[in-house]
């Protein structure tokens, strides 16, 4: 149950911050946001405030922000259609009723001659079949279309995504991955506030009770100068040597209270899944809790993890990293199950890592992802005009289909790895 709750909270937070980035910059650009959704599939919960519906959907595998003008979203009103119109006290149309006019006894029935719901915002038509005078009704910018008892707000052209400047559209799309990186920075900063920032130098912090380090006589504050004669400059240098020598005696040359000591220790052998065993002695790096270190730590950790992920992507492209090693939702769930058992700080660190992953994956220039859309914006900037929307839609559809295929393959590999073998 802890794993399920943790997985839902983590995945929900990642999706929420990603979509919130899109949402907040769409709002800043003046784009009509129709829906802010967490999850896909049938609605579990919905709440409407102002012009946006906020929904939680059944399948917690993503989310979306539905912006006006991105998809066909309203029925087209053509000449000859008989519709109902509700007007306010100033004679401005507030509701356009396509069917079920009997539910609106005050609606005025009009046979449409001409309609413009985007630019000039009017409907012209004949209100009485015996009266051949053409009447024109002005629409409110917030007017809604009622179809099958569902109301959809019209979107004047200046409220649609496509009407905005290229920079505004690009920023609205880029903001999703950007907010994932911001979330990672916040998470890593919180971790540093709780435990402090590990110093770079090879200085011992906490010595774990019952560990080989404690049995050998190491103490907090010991400075490692060398191991078996090899100079040690950083805590990472020390860790690398220890990990490479499980069950082998190592002689540490340390400085303690301005004295130089030589202390032998045998790293404990630790088995690692799908890897060679490593050595551990049971010490942690000294922690710095100064404000300056904590303030920078979130940015530094996010940067370092981003670089590591890009290295793995490079290995995937060059063939040094197999697709079988990728994980989908099942693999993430199983890893979360392991991390939950190691404590809150590791769970927070895992959340930050996943957030960076989500941000990077969405920035890849793959159709159907944010990076794919940004690529089309780049082409638009070079050409001086947008790419044909139908062609772009086909490319994104093909990309989405390929991504779904990859997701199926990765999920099947996860199932085989964790439940069959």
UniProtKB/TrEMBL annotation:
It is found in: Membrane. The chain crosses the membrane at residues 6-25, 173-194, 393-412. Residues 196-269 form the PDZ domain. SUPFAM superfamilies: PDZ domain-like. Its main location: membrane. Its EC number is 3.4.24.-. It comes from the Bacteria. Gene3D superfamilies: 2.30.42.10. Its cofactor is Zn(2+). Keywords: Hydrolase, Membrane, Metal-binding, Metalloprotease, Protease, Transmembrane, Transmembrane helix, Zinc. Belongs to the peptidase M50B family. NCBIfam families: RIP metalloprotease RseP. This is Zinc metalloprotease.
